[in-house]
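Section 5.1 Outputs to date
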Amino acid sequence: MNRYCITGGIGAGKSYVCRLLNERGIAIYDTDKQARHIINTSQAIHDQLVSLIGPDTYIDGVYNTAAVTKFLLASEANKQAINSIVHPAVMDDFLRSGMQWMECAIIYEAHLEHFVDKVIAVTAPREVRIQRIMQRDSIPYDRAAQWVDGQTNQQEVAQRADYVIVNDGKTDLNKQVDEILKIIKIED
């Protein structure tokens, strides 16, 4: 059974592409959602994070995002330490889920691409992404641009991916999704 990943930067439209796949009967494992679930329910992850970050990691059993974010942003080493706890747990959960498809924005940054057979990158022009983020999150242009510019260059992501879906608001997304699914069905 082959496994596939939908990836792309913030505002590129990977979640929308995942909805199109859902409409075609394909279940998608949402790595962000599952990471939050695991962080909040796994005693092993709880214990590892508390050991790494300290007792403020959870307050009355509830994950303390502010404390963890402060620790995470303090250094690259801290970020890597958290990732080394959370990412393997999420990938283990994905593999045990029996699902073939996942949505993961940071597949390359987290070096998780070896868990899937094919990567599909969703791309969109920078300005389109900024406008989508501004509308979705009700934030100013500068902040949306900072989020977009702070991520891995989407040209690099597209070059590394096996397939690319262009979500520029002009190119037919349904046609692109159907074409990729047709190719994947032939390859399986």
